Structure formats: C-alpha cells, structure tokens
Amino acid sequence: SYDQYGSADPMEGMGGGPGAGFSGFGGMDDILSQMFGGAFSGRGGHGHGFTSQGEDIEASITLSFMEAVNGVQKTITITPVVHCEPCGGQGAKKGAKKGAKRKTCRTCRGTGQAMFKMGGFHVQQPCPECSGEGSSISSKDKCSACQGRGRVRERKTVPIDIPAGCDSGMRVKISDMGDVPADGHGPAGDLYVKVRVLPSKTFRRKGSDIYYDLQVPLTTAILGGTLRVPTVDGDVEVNIKPGVQPGDELRLRTKGVRKVNSTGRGDQYLNLNVKLPTELTSKQRELVEQLDAELTGKPRSDPAKESTESTESTDGSEQGTKEKDGFFSRIKKDFENFKKHDDK
C-alpha cells in the first residue's frame, strides 16, 4: 500500500547502493547491538518468542519537473535486512543437531551490554562474551550464510507509484518493505521514499500554483491582442487587454498542478514583462515620437509640421476634431503595422 506524507527535507545518496535505504545502521553487528537496548524498545535476545516491529528504512528519488506534475511509476533499489533463507532466520545451519539453537548469554543475560569500570567510571560496552548479540550459538552449528545471526541484507528492486502533484520534501510510504525485526517474528518496518524534484527551465512552482514570465511586445501592451502561453497541459491562447503595465499579473484558473490525493488543481500566474525593442528604424522612431508628442503634449520634432497642424486645428472645432481623429487612426494603423513587423 502507498501513503503520502508531507514535509521532510529531501535526502540524497540513499536507495541506490550497498547499505542505502538503511536507517542509521553501519553493519549487521550494529543492528544486533541496537536490538539489545532492552525491553524499552520491544527488542531482546534471540529466542525470547515475543513479537517485535522491524525498523523503518528510507530511500530517496529524484524526479523531473513534469514527472512530479503528471505522476510517474519508478523503481528504486534498497537493501533491507531480511530473514536468512538457508537457516530460516534461526542461525543454525542445516543438518545441525536437533535442538541446536541460540542460547542466552550468561554474562550479559541477553542484554548484549556489559558494564566495565574505568578510572572510577562505569562504562557500558558490548558484551565480550557474545559480541553484543545477547545470545550465541556454537560455532559448529552456525549457518555459514549469516554467521549464525539469522539475518542478512538482501538487494531488492521495488516499484513505486509517484502521485501527480508530488513535490520536493514529500514522502511516499510503502508498507512492510523495511527491515524485518532483528529478533522474533514480528512484521517488517516500512519504506519511506523522499522525493526531490528538479527545477523547470520554463516554470516556477509554489505549492500547487505555477508561475510563468510572459514577454509582451510593446505594441501588444499598447493595443492589446492574443499571445500563446505554455502551460503544464500544453500551449493556450491568452487575451491581452490594451494598456497592460510591466509587472501586471494574469491568472489562469485550474492551469496549475494537481493537488495530491485530491481532484483539485492550482492556478497558473502570468507575470507580464513588456518587451521593448532595442533598435528602431527611422519610420518606427518617427511613429514613437508622434505618439510621445500626443501623450505628453511635448512639441513635435518637426516644427513645420507642428505649426501646420496647430493652424489647421484652430480653423474650426468640427474640422479640428476630424483632423485629430484622423491622426489617431493613422497612429493606430501605423502601430498595427509596427506590431506585425515586431512580431516577425
């Protein structure tokens, strides 16, 4: 079964090599010494017959941006502790005398720890009699595969379903894929896979929302129009209203990332960056200067034309209005031609 858990810092370097995916143990001896923390942790020496829980293990996986958005099935490699198959987890080799089994250490009484006095201090160390195992089996009866421990590491390849909308820091739980108990016959622990998502070159993500910087040509910003915009579902046409300003933001509803364990989706936000031309032809510059003169009331760059237009505009209100309308129509038409040229 698969469960999703939220936030945990992503971890690297686990799940792919020997010892990867193993929760904090350096070797089999460490595992067996850990189990003798006593009854406080529900662990004890071999052969006590009580049920204990195996340790959880961790692994990590790296996904591309779109794999996390859409969901994907991956495989990871782990090396959990399992029962030794040749001896069935008992530690005694096949053919050993009937009744050959692990016996509780008399020195540490099954705790795996012994107290030593050093310089007036009492120091707890692994028991030298049983090497910290808490129990022992005669060398002639030991299983050669596990050296009498009854547990070995086994390399496994595990399929994992990554849900759509998964993000960095999330964990996917796979039940019963962790370590078996170091003693007893209880259930195995669980496997927790931490997810790391690589950044996108196109989008930015915050939770289930997507952000995109949209370059808007100057003429489109002034006159309005439509622009093609990429989304995680493919390109869409977006209407740009006349007069948009640099830094304005548009919202595309439900064009974001699917929310984990939900049918809902986030939104996509477009940050508008007005794209200014770096070079102008003489005709384009003349048009911009005319627009600047009309918007700001500054004198035109051509005094003769400015004088002529001023005289004509004072001949009569009706004629002046007609000339003004004609000018703006011409400006709009020229800008539309400028826009076509700029788009090319």
Which SSEs are present, and which pair or pack?
Elements: E1 2-5, H1 28-34, E2 57-63, H2 65-70, E3 72-78, E4 81-83, E5 103-104, E6 113-118, E7 121-126, E8 135-136, E9 151-153, E10 156-162, E11 171-174, E12 191-197, E13 204-206, E14 209-217, H3 218-223, E15 225-229, E16 236-240, E17 249-252, E18 268-275, H4 282-296, H5 303-313, H6 317-343
Parallel strand pairs: 2-12, 14-18
Antiparallel strand pairs: 1-11, 3-10, 4-9, 5-8, 6-7, 11-12, 13-14, 15-16, 17-18
Helix pairs in contact: 4-6
How would you describe the overall organization of this protein?
The protein has 344 residues and is an alpha+beta fold. 21% of the residues lie in helices and 27% in strands. It contains 6 helices and 18 strands. The chain has helices at 28-34, 65-70, 218-223, 282-296, 303-313, 317-343; strands at 2-5, 57-63, 72-78, 81-83, 103-104, 113-118, 121-126, 135-136, 151-153, 156-162, 171-174, 191-197, 204-206, 209-217, 225-229, 236-240, 249-252, 268-275. The strands form 7 sheets. Strands 1-11-12-2 form a 4-stranded mixed β-sheet. The protein has a 4-stranded mixed β-sheet with strand order 13-14-18-17. α4 packs across α6 (317-343). It is rod-shaped, with a radius of gyration of 37 Å. The relative contact order is 0.14.
